[in-house]
Amino acid sequence: MKTEPSIRPSDSLRHVRYEIRGRLAHRAHELERQGYEIVSLNIGNPKAFGFRTPETMRLAMIENLAEAEGYCHQKGIFPAREAVVMQQQERGITGITAEEVFIGNGVSELIDLVLRALLNDGDEVLVPSPDYPLWTAAVTLNRGKAVHYPCRPENGFVPDPEEVARLITPRTRAIVVINPNNPTGAVYPRPVLEALARMAERSGLVVFSDEIYDQMTYDGAEFVPMATLVRDTLCATLSGLSKVYRACGYRVGWAVFSGRTHPAADYLKALELLSSLRLCSNVLAQWAVQTALGGYQSLKQLITPGGRLYESRRAILDAVQSSRFLKLQPPQGAMYGFIGVDTSQMPDFDDQQFALDLLEQKHVLVAPGVSFNVAYRNHFRVTTLPDSAMLRDVFGRIDELLTAYASAPREVAQSNVVDALSRFK
């Protein structure tokens, strides 16, 4: 009998991970097909929990449907780019025009493009740990090396600029700043951002500032746009419609270049070339940008006391406070909690095994902390998108499982966890 040759994937994927939609998520889908109801807290997907995109954005697309049937400019339609410029100018960012704005199919596509245009083999990029794992994956896929700078739990997940500076080598090309942070919800203080900006300027690093949660802050936390601080090097601000405007499926993001753009002319031409190769991003959804940025900001109703996101966040804080197993640095922004487990009561705790057990036994899907490129194994991330009642129920299930762990401690080898997950492709 003739054996079919296997088709091997590219070696470039060998060290690429995205566990948020990985094997645990595949197992969750399998359980759903079997009839189980799974509470999926692994992804920040507002639509899945009943949030709606503002009506005015949908109307803007309908009204411009006839204008969306052909390709547009590779950087995006002018009204969308100009709206982004106006937003940046209102925030005190000067010296930019529509020519410095690139519209992409979500920030995800732009992360890949801005790195692909920059990196050569072995170039290093400073990436926070924990990070949104697409940044690490995109650096790796584009032949670079992600060098993780720690944002330690004991420091409120805020980086120490002096510690970051010690990681710079002659191969370092850029630094990634995620603020407000995913997965931790940390909002970086102005002095920390200023120190990072000066460090990048001294070393000639490109600053990639991921600000997709820019307006999503709580209890008076101050969001400081990185581009207001970076003057003597290139700064790329990345944001979009997905989170603040609850329009993940529209796939609209933007990258705005400010600071020292003239010495970066060749780099920006390379980025435009890559943008041209994919012709253009989703034209129809771009017509929602001007309305979104210039219209009523309905998010404010969600992030203040009494608002859905604010109250869900408070439900998580209350649940953690009442648990004898959990700890949490209160998230000041974004839509996540990066929750720690007190390992003094269960020293063999493993975040991947916990996530698998929680899924199999309690039908709750979370993202284990190791998914976010950290060395420790006692954290997991949940989204704050469910309503308060659902979150109280979820944390009741979490405490039940941890109580079982504490009353019957067991040692689980990491290889056993990997073996269990490998069944779910």
Keywords:
Aspartate Aminotransferase, domain 1; 425 residues; Aspartate Aminotransferase, domain 2; seven-stranded mixed beta sheet; alpha/beta
User: How large, in whole angstroms, is the Cα Rg?
Assistant: 22 Å
* Biggest β-sheet description: 7 strands, mixed
How many β-strand stretches? 13
Distance between the termini: 27 Å
Broad shape: globular
Reported by name, the CATH topology of the largest domain is: Aspartate Aminotransferase, domain 2
Name given to the CATH homologous superfamily of the largest domain: Type I PLP-dependent aspartate aminotransferase-like (Major domain)
CATH class of the largest domain: Alpha Beta
Average pLDDT, all residues: 93
Helical residues, percent: 25-40%
Estimate the strand proportion: 5-15%
Helix and strand run: HEHHEHEHEHEHEEEHHHHHEEHEEEHH
Under the CATH scheme, the architecture of the largest domain is 3-Layer(aba) Sandwich
How would you describe what is shown here?
With 425 residues, the chain is an alpha/beta fold. The protein has 2 domains: 11-51 and 301-422, Aspartate Aminotransferase, domain 1; 55-294, Type I PLP-dependent aspartate aminotransferase-like (Major domain) (Aspartate Aminotransferase, domain 2). It has helices at 23-33, 55-63, 78-90, 106-116, 133-141, 161-165, 190-203, 265-277, 283-286, 289-294, 299-303, 308-322, 351-362, 388-407, 414-422; strands at 39-40, 101-104, 124-129, 145-150, 172-178, 206-210, 234-240, 253-259, 326-328, 336-341, 364-365, 367-368, 379-383. The strands form 3 sheets. A 7-stranded mixed β-sheet has the order 2-8-7-6-5-3-4, sandwiched between helices. A 4-stranded antiparallel β-sheet has the order 9-10-13-12. A hairpin with a 7-residue loop joins strand 9 (326-328) and strand 10. It starts with 22 loop residues before the first helix and ends with a helix. The model has no long low-confidence stretch (mean pLDDT 93).
